[in-house]
Design brief:
Length: about 220
């Protein structure tokens, strides 16, 4: 596919950045088409099944527990979005660093002749530093997202058992119905939260596939 491109196309591309980008996009496509897609289908099935069972055994309690699902989903979406964004930025910085290294190696005589070794080293180091910062940002985003998810999970535990005991006292539900409803909806909501990051992976794979197929086609 690269050999079929016009000469003018190469004038708009950085040779080392192009190879680095392709080698980075292929794993993204492979990951999206691999276990992540199967996991997404699995978590979707778990979510639907849990909601059906929960609403069947106690729709009132199920509504109360499921009302916290938007907060759990928001935490998961925040984590997925920020991690994906930071990862993409890190890949761009690594691609630029690869281009700088390849450029300097190919023109090493010129670099030595003009005594610009320190300048090129600083250019390379700056790109790696930006990639490191992007990686740290991705880690912080993942930590904050997981913290939000578990915070709302424990809030759901407290509210569900309080309201469940109230329904038991009124005779609307039995103890078994409360437990079945609660854990069914919690499993459904947790499956929803676990399935959301897979959407980010699928979206990233789709974006990478667009770049690859733009070269192939």
């Amino acid at each position: 596919a690269l050999f079929r491109q016009e000469i003018a196309w190469y004038d708009t591309q950085k040779s080392a950045a192009l190879s680095t980008r392709i080698s980075g996009d292929i794993p993204n496509i492979q990951e999206a088409l691999g276990d992540k897609f199967g996991s997404f289908l699995q978590f979707t099935g778990m979510c639907i099944s849990g909601l059906v069972v929960g609403f069947f055994h106690g729709w009132q309690l199920a509504l109360v527990v499921f009302s916290l699902a938007p907060f759990l989903a928001a935490g998961g979406m925040f984590m997925s979005k920020m991690v994906s964004k930071s990862t993409a930025s890190g890949q761009d910085y690594y691609a630029e660093a690869g281009y700088i290294a390849d450029e300097v190696i190919r023109m090493v005589k010129t670099v030595i002749a003009f005594q610009t070794q320190e300048k090129e080293i600083n250019r390379y180091r700056n790109q790696l530093e930006k990639a490191r910062v992007a990686g740290e940002k991705a880690g912080r985003s993942a930590g904050i997202g997981m913290g939000l998810v578990y915070f709302f999970i424990y809030i759901a535990y407290a509210i569900a058992f309080w309201y469940g005991s109230y329904l038991i006292g009124k005779g609307n539900l039995s103890t078994g119905d409360v437990l079945v409803t609660f854990f069914s909806v919690i499993i459904a909501v947790m499956a929803l939260g676990q399935g959301l990051p897979a959407i980010g992976v699928l979206a990233k794979g789709r974006g990478s596939a667009y770049k690859i197929f733009s070269v192939i086609d």
